[in-house]
Amino acid sequence: MSIDMEQFKVTFVEESLEGLDIMESVLLDMHPGAADAEAIDNIFRAAHSIKGGAATFGLGDIANFTHVVETLLDEVRNGDRDITQDAIVLFLSSVDCIREMLSADQNGEAIDQANIEQVKAGLDKMLGSKQESETVSAEDNVTASTTTQDTGWQIIFKPFPGMLRTGNDVVRMFRELASLGEFNAVVDTENLPPLVDMDPEEAYLSWHITLNGDIEKSQISEIFEWVEDDCELEILPLAEGNAETVANDTDKTNKADKTNKTNKTTDENKPVDLQVASPPPERRAKEDRRQESDRRQPARKAAAPESSSIRVGIDKVDDLINMVGELVITQSMLSQLGEDFDMSRVERLNDGLAELERNTRELQESVMRIRMLPISFAFNRFPRMVHDLSAKLDKKIELTMSGEQTELDKTVMEKIGDPLVHLVRNSIDHGIETPEIRKAAGKPETGVVNLNAYHQGGNIIIEISDDGAGLNDEKILAKAIERGLVGANEELPEEKVYELLFEPGFSTADVVSDVSGRGVGMDVVKRNIMALGGRVDVKSVPGEGSTFTIRLPLTLAILDGQLVRVGDNTYIIPLVSIVESLLVDKKNVNEIAGKAEVYQLRSDYLPIIRLYEVFGIEPDRRSLDDGLLVVVEGDGKKGGLLVDELLGQQQVVIKSLETNFRRVEGLSGATILGDGTVALIVDVSGVVRLSREDGRCPNDQVEAA
């Protein structure tokens, strides 16, 4: 039975990316000459796992690259090499290269080969610097301590039962051994069960292998390196005269701890000869070409690692199982009530239905919690980014993070990453001053960028703050006047000035850099956040710093909504967008240019948006007399939606229109109500935009009559 390696590959990539994150985090906290053994062990293990897995899946470039990194880390771990600042920088660059190669393999993208070769050359140079100093002593001892020219090696290889389940292939390993020299293997079938008891993914066989030729022990060890924890292994010299020398050889992978085993063969169970020869060159070349072709087929591309799976705590799974059990009990109780039902059981039926409702809601909450991940998954990218940018901009910056365990829906997490990157980069480039300027202003030379996350109601709040120079209101306003965004003599409140930052192409940077200053990004930040049903607010104090606050829903799968009726149709308006609801008082209605209508609400004038006109349906009434107005806020502006009736509030499960139908302007999705009918979810920002385009709504919220 052949094992489909692709079923394990996505897991390998996910675990490798987690390992790279660990390596990066440990390296960022490391100081030259002060690396502790545990930290080095952590990054060594991560590199070792990535190398072994890459070799298993045929990712030779990644395996070879990581092998050099692992060798250097092993020298540091054994005290043969000091950790320097140059080494830390080189290891960080290596992490980037491995991450890029993994991503390229997953997505079928090209890689920056020149950069990878440059980093690889740096690793080789660092590795060679020590090896050159040891060349003379190595040449003096280049005897049987490194090779066995006369005979070769005896290998006793006994896989543990579960070795094959991790995707390892014995035939491939033997093929690699056969490429080193003259290869012969004898199979031991002592543990082979009857055919009916066999598990095709279990390993039952072991082998006694003879390998003749001018072969270094390290070459053999490398082939078995990624299964060292899944087997018993002995590599012994065939020549008696070499035994003592080899015993003194340093085995960098420490496999000697678990190879003090014996393998005895009895007459009753004599080993059977196994012919495992290297395949003919033409056959092997053909198979290699086929495997390479398979690996490059677009149809075999794996899904993006960040969206392919999710790790769930066992406590959440236990809660889910418990709730399903409660639901089964309630269902059983209701089934019994349905047998020979009479009116005397109505009270028990109502109690059972109430219990069912409670269990269903708790089950829904348990399922939604499975999708929740700590926001540290999004925050973890920033220590490296701040480290690199501070060096590039010649600034001293400290990154502090709080609320990393605040949980957020996985889908929201994936989509908030880029906006956060833009905001943090702007804080570093525009906000934090250089050490000289900070010192002259009486501040510490090291600036602070803080990331904070916390729950507030049904939302998550993410704050990006810095103690830099703050926003220059006059400079922002002057740039806006220059671009014609505001009038020359127009005065704007502070919050309106800060909103100008999110205008497309807007920038106050005096010098354009590759970090920021091109006016690209802040408008995207706002658009992406609003697409998630959130908003971004800005506060700043000149000379003290700025704070960007992002408010997002905890999940995109469920929302709290207000059901409204327009004619025969039911719509849902997200509660987060509703300011208030009121009966229309005709004396407060005014017309602009004979077409657009506005409603005076206290000191504000709100554009009136007739939903039946926007969606082209027939309402109960067209007159504004005694009409119902739902005051909403979207895209930073308020408006009044005219509806026929307010129904009720409820939590609804969002169904995508694009997936099941097509995108409809003014609608963000749909849901199925309790009676089986479909209700459409209103996109408040989209409805306001449609009204403006049709001329039924003023372009801006009216400030005065």
The CATH architecture term of the largest domain is 2-Layer Sandwich
Strand content is: 15-25%
Silhouette = flat
Helix content: 40-55%
Count of DSSP helices? 23
Distance between the termini: 80 Å
What is the radius of gyration computed over CA atoms, rounded to a whole number of angstroms? 34 Å
CATH topology (level 3) name of the largest domain: Heat Shock Protein 90
Across the major sheet, the strand order is 15-19-20-18-17-16
Biggest β-sheet: count, sense, barrel? 6 strands, mixed
Count of folded domains: 5
Q: What is the level 1 CATH name of the largest domain?
A: Alpha Beta
Low-confidence stretches: 131-150, 240-307, 701-705
Query: Mean pLDDT score, rounded?
Result: 77
Q: Please identify the structural class as seen in this structure.
A: alpha+beta
What is the assigned CATH homologous superfamily of the largest domain?
Histidine kinase-like ATPase, C-terminal domain
